[in-house]
Fold this sequence. Notes:
Elements: H1 12-23, H2 27-30, H3 68-78, H4 80-90, H5 115-140, H6 147-170, H7 175-198, H8 201-221, H9 224-240
Helix pairs in contact: 5-6, 5-8, 7-8, 7-9
Amino acid sequence: xxxxxxxxxxxxxxxxxxxxxxxxxxxxxxxxxxxxxxxxxxxxxxxxxxxxxxxxxxxxxxxxxxxxxxxxxxxxxxxxxxxxxxxxxxxxxxxxxxxxxxxxxxxxxxxxxxxxxxxxxxxxxxxxxxxxxxxxxxxxxxxxxxxxxxxxxxxxxxxxxxxxxxxxxxxxxxxxxxxxxxxxxxxxxxxxxxxxxxxxxxxxxxxxxxxxxxxxxxxxxxxxxxxxxxxxxxxxxxxxxxxxxxx
Length: 247
């Protein structure tokens, strides 16, 4: 324990030792501290960023490193091929459907409209088209348009339209129905052309609205290629006109 007295002579040794300590150079002042050296890793252990390239310089992905037999085993175990074959056999229209087990959440199926209700909706629309062509035909031949008569004809044609629409909607997936739709569309179009070329005014006014309505509906049901065939057949019939008089 160091004691400091009031007399300066008694504190002389202590003051001398403190001055010697203050006059001595510090180790940090005499010897500079060198920064630590960074050791660089070996170049062979450095992993380059970017795509994994093969010997030809093309990107090589992880899936390419899996053998072919292992890929086929994974595909067979996943059941994708069985699902694909099932969808093709049933003709669902899609190659592969999503599995319900793979969905992250429950998806409620959209309610399907019954066939009778779908046919009823189409019947209302087609009856309106029929009434429109009734008014256009009467206007074409300068006949006064009576809306009560047009509404009455629309009501009379509605059951026949509903019957045709119901049958085509119910059995639309059958191939024979597709063929019948194509034949009916070609027949309606050709007969409509025949009426306009060779029938008197009364025949056109009575038959043309129904024919053009059915032609529009049957063409609407077909795909692109049958629709093109239908248009070509009707156009060829109009150009040839096999029922024209030779005299």
